C-alpha cells in the first residue's frame, strides 16, 4: 500500500544561501504522525560535452562536504527560476570556456529523493567552440578531457564517484 | 588550479534524526573566506536484485521531499557504523522479503557532492529466495518487478527519476 503523507505542520529550521532545512510533521495511517527532514535545494544542471575529437570535458574541483577533489561533468545550480537549458549553456561557458552549438536535453532525476528535492537536468552538448572560462570568484576548477570509453572503464573500476557524472557517461555511451 | 579549502570554523546549525546541517567557514586564496553549507548524512545502500526470471525487483513509495511516489531499487540508510553489505542484506529483506544467496558490491558514489557527504553503496543481489517483507512501521512500499530491458527503455523515456536506480540499472545492463 502506498500512502501519501499529508503535511500537518511545516517549519523552516534553517534558511541558507543554497539550501534550506525544513521539518514537516506528516500524518500516517491509524492517526500516527512522523517527522520528515527535508533539504530544499533549487536544483541544478549537468552537461556532458563532447568535443570533435570525441572527448568528454570533465572538471576536477575540491568538494568541501567530502574533503576531497572530485572528477565531475561541468554542472551548476539553477538561479532562482532559471530555465535549465539556459543554465546549462551558462555553466558550460563559465566553468570550461566552451560554447555549444547544440545543447540537447537527455533526462532529469532526483539526486536523493529520501531527504532532498534536488532535481538535476542533464544536457548533451556538441558542436563545441573553445573560449575563455569565467569561473565564479570562489570557484577553482581544473579541466580534463577523456575519451568516453576510458570514462566507462573508470566507472567499472569504481574511479568516478559523482552520481550525475556516472549517469551522463553511461547514458551517452550506451543509450544514444 | 585546485584549492583545498581549510576549515576556519564549523558550526552544526541543526542536529536531525537523519541529517545534520553544518556551516563551515573556509579559507580561499588571497585571504578570502567563504561559507559552505553541508548536509551530513550517514550514507546508504541500494540493491539491484535480479530474480531467476531475469526480473529486477523495484519498490514504489511516497517521497515527502518531492511530494510524489517514486519507483526505485530497494535502498536504505546505514545504521551508525553499519557495514554496507550487511545493510544491503537487511534492507532487501525488510523492504521486499527477498533473501539473496549472492550480494556483490558494484560501486559507490556521492549523490550530490556539492552540498552533502551522502555516499551510496550499490550491491547486486542474485540467488533470491522470497520470504515475507518486514517494512519499518512507518514505511509503506509496493513491490513491482520489471525486465531489465524495460527499465533501460524507461530510462531512455525519462520515466525513472531516482539517481541510484538509473546508475544501478545501466551498470548491470551495460557493464556486467
Automatic annotation (TrEMBL), chains A, B:
- Pfam families, sorted: NUDIX
PROSITE patterns listed in its UniProt record: NUDIX, NUDIX_BOX
GO MF terms listed in the record are:
ADP-ribose diphosphatase activity
Task: Keywords in alphabetical order, please.
Answer: Hydrolase
Q: One of this protein's GO BP terms?
A: nucleoside phosphate metabolic process
Per its UniProt record, the required cofactor names are: Mg(2+)
Domain Nudix hydrolase, by residue range, is 40-168
Task: Keyword check for Glycosyltransferase, yes or no.
Answer: no
Any one of the GO CC terms: cytosol
- Name the Enzyme Commission number(s) assigned to this protein: 3.6.1.13
- Is the NADP keyword given for this protein? no
Q: What InterPro entries does this protein map onto?
A: Nudix_hydrolase, NUDIX_hydrolase-like_dom_sf, NUDIX_hydrolase_CS, NUDIX_hydrolase_dom
Return the similarity comment: Belongs to the Nudix hydrolase family.
Q: What is this protein called?
A: ADP-ribose pyrophosphatase NudF
Q: What is the lineage of its organism?
A: Bacteria, Bacillati, Bacillota, Clostridia, Peptostreptococcales
